[in-house]
Design a protein that fits this description.
By secondary structure, the protein is of the alpha+beta class. It folds into two domains: about 5-140, 2-Layer Sandwich (60s Ribosomal Protein L30, Chain: A), CATH 3.30.1330; about 145-300, Phosphoribosyl-aminoimidazole Synthetase, Chain A, domain 2. It is built from nine helices and twelve strands. It has helices spanning about 5-10, 60-75, 95-115, 160-170, 180-190, 195-200, 215-225, 250-255, 275-280, and strands at about 20-25, 30-35, 40-50, 80-90, 115-125, 130-140, 155, 205-210, 230-235, 265-270, 285-295, 300. Helix 2 packs parallel to helix 3 (about 95-115) and helix 4 (about 160-170) crosses helix 5. The longest helix has 18 residues, at about 60-75. The chain starts with a helix and ends in a 19-residue tail after the last strand. The mean pLDDT is about 90.
């Protein structure tokens, strides 16, 4: 099977039905896109490399899901509405069974969020998926890391830590029951981008970021861009269902520095607490208030007794981890 047969069979869809923002998708040298009047484009790119971002044992359908999910999570963190994406795909060989599963998982999530594949590239090489997503938000309403304000409440969506727990299980450093292993593995391989919550927080939250490299590290980006500090109730961070069965030290490692959660950290003024809960309910996404942003620089982590927690474990860094 050649490159163009591969594209036509697995990644070309019926584009006759109009899709917002997409005048022309796959089929020419470029896609033709246009934002809704009064909106701004938001664009992000993430790459998944075998052996670095995913294991060779992952099911193709889950890999297709995750490749798009981690990109949609960036749009969610900015409060954007997904519109279009491109896929650059390197393959060791044109494996039809693998491609069928990959495309099925990719398009199931794309359809769930109304986002269209509008182009990309394929080549032979080590397995690598690189997706660029495009979304839009009303002009001036995108959620940014730099918008946080002293006195804001700090929230996190969903739960943290199960993805890192799965990695520890694969490494053989922890033993899990069959049920907990499947729960943790699903969290690692099938993250759910919080797109609806991000949109519901527009005009309400002051800042947001998604948790890709770990809570401490990603919150640190918000603090740096906003010139603020924070106090966080470390043991109040919501634990994943599998992680909740583990010792406290492992729970802290996975929730504070684990990464691969793709939940949202966001800040909002205390006066908006009822509105934040309404946004949580409207998007069917639980949120937990875990701390407060402060003018004093630095991150202060407290344990359940309110004592300072000495934490020196770094979040994920591709060139240090």
């Amino acid at each position: 099977m050649g490159e163009f047969d591969l594209i036509k069979r697995f990644f070309t869809r019926d584009t006759r039905a109009p899709q917002p923002g997409v005048a022309l998708g796959i089929g020419d040298d470029c896609a033709v896109l246009g934002p809704t009047p009064g909106a701004q484009w938001l664009v992000s790119t993430d790459m998944l490399v075998e052996g670095r971002h995913f294991l060779s044992t992952v099911a193709p359908e889950r890999l297709g899901h995750k490749a798009l999910a981690v990109n949609l999570s960036d749009l969610a963190a900015c409060g954007a509405t997904p519109r279009a994406f491109t896929l650059a795909l390197a393959l060791p060989r044109a494996d039809e069974v693998f491609l069928e599963g990959l495309a099925r998982g990719l398009f199931a999530l794309a359809d769930a969020h109304g986002i269209a594949l509008v182009g990309g590239d394929t080549t032979a090489g080590p397995l690598n998926l690189c997706i660029t997503v495009m979304g839009e938000a009303p002009a001036g309403q995108a959620l940014l890391r730099s918008g946080a304000r002293a006195g804001d409440d700090l929230y996190v969506s969903g739960s943290l830590g199960d993805a890192r727990l799965a990695l520890e299980a694969f490494r053989g450093s922890v033993s899990l029951s069959a049920q907990d292993f499947e729960t943790a593995r699903r969290a690692m391989e099938c993250p759910q981008p919080r797109v609806a919550l991000g949109q519901a927080l527009r005009g309400l939250a002051h800042s947001a970021i998604d948790v890709s490299d770990g809570f401490v590290g990603d919150l640190g980006h918000v603090l740096a861009r906003s010139g603020l500090g924070a106090t966080v109730q470390a043991d109040a961070l919501p634990r994943g269902a599998a992680l909740a069965h583990q010792p406290l030290a492992l729970q802290r490692l996975c929730t504070l520095s684990g990464g691969d959660d793709y939940e949202l950290i966001f800040s909002a003024p205390p006066a908006a607490r009822a509105a934040v809960q309404a946004a949580s309910a409207a998007s069917a996404t639980p949120v937990t208030r875990v701390g407060r942003l402060e003018a004093e620089p630095g991150l202060r982590l407290l344990d359940a007794q309110g004592q300072a927690l000495d934490w020196a474990v770094a979040s994920f860094d591709h060139f240090k981890s």
